[in-house]
């Protein structure tokens, strides 16, 4: 019965054909051993990949020996690898779970290239999908996170996703399938295990079939997601312009869009923004130019009429425009701006964090950017040009700090090496009527 259901599930989701060569990820646990047995019984061309993550000492080694022996006795091609997972996680600043997943799938892809496997079968079951949904729900997620685990993701297939853990255990018992118990599955220090051992039993008290009903709900949401994605794609085409790594979102069009927050949550998720961060991005539409929200990898900042999305490494080199009506920016450097009538001005403050410029000598918009080789200006009090690089050396600015020195320009002329010195050509003099005061906040 379980075998025929699996075959139908594979056909329904177009997971594999008789011509496919399937690499089965087998840990030795009950799920993967049952999956291997079912695929072999159904006549699929299979090979086995086992990863020894060296996390449970002798127990990990015994798991590998068990799977190796089973494949030898069954005539199934066997591939294995041993990882120092803890060291890899430490070097790459990853959790153990994320490190293991990264290592596992990279190894599977390597085997596919080397041995011509066309599909990778993973033994996730219905309960795993439900646990994933609940995990995503507690963390905060978009619609996609409520659809559980997908049956097919490129060449990765999950033929047991329809089956409950109870059904798998019954099949293993009926057909006397040997397997290994992973002792780490019993501990609740892992979030997934906490849901499995603590949360789901309570939900089953409300509804004994809670696993199945949650899974069915996830499937309905998966179908609805297709419709939503089509609509979100239409919104994206109307709002978004993409040019290399720079993405521009039209603010006026975004504000007029009833599904703006849903769009931002879905669109920004691929750039490491959480749903909460996506809501903050929407708030930028009411903020001053230069305001920003960051994820681990990207930055969205408010420009005059747009939201600009850039990779962090590119953003630090990005130029920010300042118009005459702007009073504050907070990136790439925090600056306050004020226009003061010279007759009402207090005595000019002398500080490297304050710049007083003749407003009428400026051409807007001004530009804030990192200094670059070849830049030159006339430092206040001098008559001739000096390279910014030489000025920073003379000012004894540390090498590490030089990389974060910004300049403010007007019509491509430097008016202020921010936090250091203004350009003498833009100084306040006896002809000045309005002062443009800038302060490093």
Q: What's the arrangement of strands in the largest beta sheet? A: 3-2-1-4-6-5
The number of distinct helices, counting runs of at least 4 residues, comes to 15
User: Which sheet architecture does the biggest sheet show?
Assistant: 6 strands, mixed
CATH architecture classification of the largest domain: 3-Layer(aba) Sandwich
Overall pLDDT: 91
Q: Name the shape in a single word.
A: elongated
Distance between the termini: 70 Å
Q: What is Rg? A: 30 Å
Compute the number of structural domains: 3
**Fraction of residues in helices?**
25-40%
**Can you tell me the CATH class of the largest domain?**
Alpha Beta
Spans of at least 5 consecutive residues whose pLDDT stays below 50 are: none
| CATH superfamily annotation of the largest domain | HUPs
- Per DSSP, what share of the residues sits in E-state strands of 2 or more residues? 15-25%
How many strands in all? Answer: 22
Can you tell me the CATH topology of the largest domain? Answer: Rossmann fold
**Class per helix and strand makeup:** alpha+beta
